[in-house]
Amino acid sequence: MPMPSTPALPQSPAVMRYSSPAITLHWLLALMIVGSFSLGVYMHELPFSPTRLKLYNWHKWAGVTILALSFVRLAWRISHRPPPDVATPAWQARLAHATHHLLYALFFIVPLVGWAYSSAAGFPIVWFGVLPLPDFVPVDKALAEALKPWHGWLAKAMALLVLLHVAGALKHQFIDRDGLIGRMRPARR
Amino acid sequence: MTHLPLNLPLTLLTTLAAAALAGPAAAQQVLPAQSEISFTSKQMGVPVEGRFKQWTAQITFDPKKPEAAKVGFTIQTGSASFGAAETDAEVPKAEWFNVARFPQASFASQSIKALGAGKFEVRGKLAIKGNSHDVVVPVTVTQAGAASTATGSFSIKRLDFKIGEGEWADTSMVANDVSVKFKLALSGMAPL
């Protein structure tokens, strides 16, 4: 009796994958968030110039896009059960879940605070230079100055959580060797 | 709040001179606290409004005799403000208003036509940064008791006046069209 050349992997929880839309949204938003964060760190030191103006607008457009896609992602996450947890100490599972919850919260809070800051500073956002977005706070210089540092602090908090998230994934990959990363790996063609 | 530090002695002199020259059509007084000149430009589609904090107007206007009327403005270019220190620091630079060389912009009417119902068409020369161009300004005058209000807006091409030179001449960043809006509270105008 011939042996199968590639034996089927056991369907352990570790290899149950996230759904394709969840995987797509995860990586798309990962790229956009890392990109917008880097842009934000870079642009705010630039002198007044057309380049600075352009980068600020791109950052705002990206931020609003991240916010919009995060609504889609949250809706998908609520309506679709993710794969069950892999076997891991309880405190690590709790830490992983807390990190996910905080990240989700910041996916909304960071862009919203940035948007509010822009509105308060008197620069309404026109999405991709075409769609004027409403101001949900009044034009108010004092409010703008109060919001500005929070946008940066919260974004840095998100960056730390992303690092923790990546560290956790790498730990599963290289220390636990439990194949957890495969759950979120883009599908092979 | 916009405070217009009008030069009172000059205004008085202008008033007297205008009264002497124009005969029956007496000059009007601009009430600075209720008046403003603002402008809106679009930066990558985002409307950004600024205003001139210092300007003077010389207005001799009888609604019944618009052809004899004269309207003049002198605007301190260095008083342009967007309300943000960072942007305001750029305004006086050579690429923008070049305040050191061109501290004043001016408007002088050449002809005024009544269009009826308190509407007028003012044609004149607008000079900014050493460039002078003809503009047509629609003005609407409303009156309540002794107080008159003149409002209007018109559009100019900023590059006609070299406002925003060099890398800022790129109209995909800052649109060429700039909308200028004004509201003048006037006392001493004859009834419409």
Characterization of this structure:
- The complex is a heterodimer of chains A (189) and B (192).
- Chain A has 189 residues and is mainly α.
- Helix content of chain A is 64%, strand content 2%.
- Chain A has a single domain (16-80, 92-179), classed as Fumarate Reductase Cytochrome B subunit (Up-down Bundle).
- Chain A has a two-stranded antiparallel sheet with strand order 1-2.
- In chain A, strand 1 (126-127) and strand 2 form a beta hairpin.
- Chain A is elongated and about 50 Å long.
- Chain A starts with 19 loop residues before the first helix and ends in a 13-residue tail after the last helix.
- Residues 1-11 of chain A have low confidence and may be disordered.
- Chain B is mainly beta and 192 residues long.
- Chain B has helices spanning 8-22, 85-88; strands at residues 27-30, 36-43, 46-52, 55-60, 70-76, 80-81, 104-116, 119-128, 131-144, 147-157, 174-187.
- Chain B has an eight-stranded antiparallel barrel.
- Chain B is elongated.
- Residues 18-24 of chain B have low confidence and may be disordered.
- At the A-B interface, helix 2 of A face strand 3 of B.
Helix and strand arrangement:
The complex is a heterodimer of chains A (189) and B (192).
Chain A: H1 20-43, H2 50-79, H3 90-120, E1 126-127, E2 131-132, H4 141-176
Antiparallel strand pairs in A: 1-2
Helix pairs in contact in A: 1-2, 2-3, 3-4
Chain B: H1 8-22, E1 27-30, E2 36-43, E3 46-52, E4 55-60, E5 70-76, E6 80-81, H2 85-88, E7 104-116, E8 119-128, E9 131-144, E10 147-157, E11 174-187
Antiparallel strand pairs in B: 1-4, 1-11, 2-3, 2-11, 3-6, 4-5, 5-7, 7-8, 8-9, 9-10, 10-11
